[in-house]
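Invent a record, attention on C-alpha cells:
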Amino acid sequence: MKRFAALMLTVCTVASLVGCSGNNASSAGAGDAQPQSQPESETKDEVGEKDILNMAYQYGLAYAPLTIAQEKGFIEESYKEVTGRSLEIVWTQMSSGPDINTGIASGTIDVGFMGVGPAVTGVTKGLGYKIFTNLSGQEHGLMTNDDSVNSLGDLVGSDKQIALVNIGAIQHVILGMALSENGYDAHALDSNIIAMKHPDGMTALETGNVALHLTSNPYIYKERDEASLHELNEVANIWSADRSFIVGVASETLYNDNPDLYAALCDGISDAIDFINADVKEAAAITAEFDGNTLEDEIKYMEAGNYKTETKGVYELAVFMAENDFIDASAKPSSYSDLVFDNVNGD
C-alpha cells in the first residue's frame, strides 16, 4: 500500500531516526507560530521515542488533504508501518507562504504547504528545501465592491486597495501575470496591495474597508454570491484550477537524513488526496466541521478543486517570475528538476 515508502527503502540506506528539528510550533492563530513545549512524559511510548515533524499550512479548501491526513493519521500510520516508531506531527496554521518560508529558513518548520509562487521563491533563494508534492489546483478571482472598477486598467495609477495574502504570494504573481497579459507592467499594482489572510480579506471587501480582494476557494465562491460585488475577469482566466496552486515543500535535511520519514510524508499526503478523490462527500463531512461550511456547500467547494500529487505549470511560473522580477533573474531555474525532489511528477 505504501508505494513511496517501499521505493525509498529499496534505494536508500536507512538513516538513524531522529526528529527533523528540535523546535516545535503551536497550532495557534495565523502567522503567530509560537514554540510549544512537549512534556517529557509524552516523548516516549511503549515502542520507543516519539519522533516529531513540524508542519505549516494555511487557510482554505486548497489545503483539504491536510485536514484529511491529520484526522485520519495517514502520515503517522505510514511511518509506524515502516519503522515501528510513533510520530507526532505539530500542525501550525500560518497566514502566507512567505511566513512559512521564514519558519523553514529558521529551522522551526520542516514541511510547509504554500502557493507555488512562494515555493519557487524559497527554492531559488536557497532556503534549503524543494517541492515534494502537489496538493491542489484552485480557481482564483479578483472581486470588487467599487462600481467604477471594471478592469485592471481602472486600477493602474489609482489608490484603490487590493487585499491578498502577501507580497510574493501566489496571488501576487497571478495578479502580475494578468497585468502582463493585458499590456501593463507586472508590478504596476504592487503599491495597491494590502496583506490580509483570506478570511480577513473577504470581510474587508464585504464591509468596504478595501476595494478589491484576490482570493481562492472557498472565499471566491462566497464572494461571487454577494450581489454587491462584481468580478474583474482578467484574473480568473490566468491560472486555471488544473494548474498547481498549493504545493508541499520539505527540507533537504529531512529528504537526505531521514528517508523513512520523508517516504511516510509522501505516502500520507498521497493517501489523503486519494481519499478525497474516491469519495468527496465523505471527505467533505470531515472538513466541513473545521471550515464552518454546511455539508452541501463543502461538497460543492471541494468538487470545484483539483486534488492531485502531480504538479502542472510550476516551471512555467518560475520562468515568468524570473523574467518579471518576482525572483532574481540570475536565480532562474534551468529545468523543472531544479525545483522538485526526484519523486515528483509533473512540469
Summary: The two ends are 26 Å apart (CA to CA). Residues 141-236 form a domain with the D-Maltodextrin-Binding Protein; domain 2 fold (CATH 3.40.190.10). DSSP finds 14 helices and eleven strands in the chain.
